[in-house]
């Protein structure tokens, strides 16, 4: 079926434009922009609402295998489609880890339950233990798009250099988590006045800088394609800027929670605000927003991490880290738009275009020939978020009860409506 979207506010991150226009899709592909409706097409009046490329979210945690009670591919797919996410790139920190071709093939079959596109990352080292590299070539053949040990940071730098060198020979993308594991062990907050007043074990912001410097040294030594999963402190930005200026193949991301929340939001030990890495100071948060606006930080992700009530209803130090974010990623990101800090093309460059480009995907664009993965949304629709209405199995969101602005009206994958609000 040929669909012709009219009266749409087209958010084009590639061109950097935000203009009223029309879009035509046929057989799952964009075939025309700002053209007349083809004969026999179905016209959809967007009512002046925003039509943008579907979000490509790198770093989503799914509970299969091992923790299906927290999140399944099916429930994550429902949440993603309701949040305007058309491609999820899922993490290997499962039980067991995705560190063999057989495990990767299992989750690939299970992912067929989802109504959005799902790509898989694999562990970089066996059991994510940081010592013995996985069979990177076989994992690439089985469909892995990147390699990461997620939040388990290796202390075996020699083993890591071998893995980087081998990944470089195969052109594999490695995703690292910049933390010095000794300094960050046991930490529940960022060290400083707030952590001291609350009696929480803290970690210095320098732990991220030290971990990043180590990884960037290995990048310089091996020439690998490297992505930093989360930059969260201002101290890390100069090192990232130097790496890019030196021509290293490095990109960086940031979590939506570190862009919109700070350490004070933890309040009286609210565990829904416990993250890895912990929330930072307001000065760090503003520095991250500025880095996204300038393009120094390339991507924004939800870092969706489902946790059940039992693992969150604990003392702050003992509670699980992370939050669900598939349905809150877009409305939370729109806070930056409403605050005048990011325009919509810049926002969708970080949410869709840059992640797609880094993975070599054709998504993330409003261009002729691109897949018709789209999100139609009203950026001004206000509502109070009720966590129990989220599609995720787990309900651990820091935005529960918050006033949000921005609702997804429809999500399309390959031209098919997978969600209609």
From TrEMBL:
| SUPFAM superfamilies named among the record's database cross-references | Composite domain of metallo-dependent hydrolases, Metallo-dependent hydrolases
Q: Name one Pfam family in it.
A: Amidohydro_3
> If you read the UniProt record, what top EC class would you report for this enzyme, in one word?
hydrolase
Superkingdom of origin organism: Bacteria
Say if the entry is tagged with keyword Ribosomal protein. no
Residues of the Dihydroorotase catalytic domain: 49-234
Keyword line: Hydrolase, Pyrimidine biosynthesis, Zinc
Question: So what EC number does this one have?
Answer: 3.5.2.3
Where would I find the Amidohydrolase domain in this sequence? Answer: 341-419
Do you know which InterPro entries this protein is assigned to?
A: Amidohydro_3, DHOase, DHOase/Allantoinase_Hydrolase, DHOase_cat, Metal-dep_hydrolase_composite, Metal_Hydrolase
- What molecular function terms (GO) are annotated for this protein? dihydroorotase activity
Return the NCBIfam families for the record. Answer: pyrC_multi
Q: What is this protein called?
A: Dihydroorotase
């Amino acid at each position: 079926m040929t669909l012709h979207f009219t009266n749409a506010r087209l958010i084009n991150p590639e061109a950097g434009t935000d203009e009223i226009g029309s879009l035509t899709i046929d057989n799952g592909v964009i075939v025309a922009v700002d053209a007349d409706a083809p004969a026999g097409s179905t016209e959809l009046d967007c009512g002046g609402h925003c039509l943008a490329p579907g979000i490509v979210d790198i770093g989503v945690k799914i509970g299969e295998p091992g923790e299906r009670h927290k999140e399944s591919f099916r429930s994550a797919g429902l949440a993603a489609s309701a949040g305007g996410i058309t491609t999820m790139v899922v993490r290997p920190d499962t039980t067991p880890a995705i560190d063999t071709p057989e495990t990767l093939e299992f989750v690939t079959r299970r992912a067929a339950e989802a109504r959005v596109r799902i790509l898989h990352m694999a562990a970089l080292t066996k059991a994510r233990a940081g010592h013995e590299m996985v069979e990177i070539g076989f994992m690439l053949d089985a469909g892995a798009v990147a390699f990461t040990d997620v939040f388990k940071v290796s202390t075996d730098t020699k083993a890591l250099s071998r893995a980087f060198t081998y990944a470089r020979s195969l052109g594999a993308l490695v995703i690292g988590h910049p933390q010095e594991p000794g300094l960050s062990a046991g930490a529940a907050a960022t060290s400083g006045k707030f952590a001291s007043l609350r009696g929480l074990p803290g970690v210095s912001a320098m732990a991220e800088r030290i971990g990043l410097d180590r990884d960037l040294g290995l990048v310089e030594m091996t020439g690998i394609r490297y992505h930093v999963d989360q930059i969260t402190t201002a101290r890390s930005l100069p090192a990232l800027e130097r790496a890019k200026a030196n021509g290293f193949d490095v990109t960086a991301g940031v979590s939506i929670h570190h862009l919109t929340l700070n350490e004070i939001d933890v309040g009286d030990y609210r565990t829904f605000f416990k993250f890895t890495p912990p929330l930072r100071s307001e000065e760090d948060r503003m520095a991250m927003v500025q880095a996204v606006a300038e393009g120094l930080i390339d991507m924004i992700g939800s870092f969706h991490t489902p946790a059940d009530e039992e693992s969150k209803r604990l003392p702050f130090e003992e509670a699980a880290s992370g939050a669900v974010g598939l349905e809150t990623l877009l409305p939370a990101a729109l806070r930056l738009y409403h605050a005048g800090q990011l325009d919509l093309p810049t926002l969708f460059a970080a949410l869709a275009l840059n992640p797609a480009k880094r993975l070599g995907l054709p998504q993330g664009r409003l261009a002729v020939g691109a897949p018709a993965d789209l999100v139609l949304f009203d950026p001004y629709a206000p509502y109070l978020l009720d966590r129990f209405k989220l599609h995720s199995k787990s309900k651990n969101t820091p935005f529960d009860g918050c006033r949000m602005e921005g609702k997804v009206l429809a999500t399309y994958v390959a031209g098919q409506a997978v969600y209609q609000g």
